[in-house]
Amino acid sequence: MTTTPRELPGTTPAPALDGLTGSTDRAALAAQPVGYWTWVANKAVIRHIQSAMARTDVTQPQWWTLNHVAGAPDGLTREEVGDRLRPFIELGRELTDNAVDHLLARGWLVSGADGRLRLTEAGREAKSRTKDLVTRLRSEIHEGITDEEYAATLTVLQRMIVNVGGIDGTGPRGGPAVKTTLR
């Protein structure tokens, strides 16, 4: 299926996705709408990751939860999990609670008398399997892209985020400096 964006006034129409690779026309690329291409990249990458994880019956919020709980020597409370995942999950605390509930039901997490969540042995095994999958997915996504190209892309995107006011709507164009750490 070929996907093209709507033509916006003052922009050059984006080429079909199937004609995108290998383009060397820098002027044509520079005229492309960044909002469209970041949206397409986001959708494609997230779809790729979620599809692969679904085949192993793990969701991204479950993976993030396993990863964060594993990294906390004393475990985490539900609230702490929610606080740590807030930058990744826009849908609110319900999604975090749902991930915790599923991991508890699967026996991958246990909640101690202190209310702190910790990984079980099965949870550590699931985390290890999922980490292997995430590493493979990262390799697939980065295929043909050097570390320098990737770093340059992130640098430009981060600069654009700051230019338009940052993640939380504050920054050079809308108020005080950006307080959110970009990763």
TrEMBL record:
Residues 1-20 are annotated as: Disordered. It comes from the Bacteria. Coiled coil: none annotated. Keywords: DNA-binding. Signal peptide: none annotated. GO terms for molecular function: DNA binding. This is DNA-binding MarR family transcriptional regulator. It comes from Streptomyces eurocidicus.
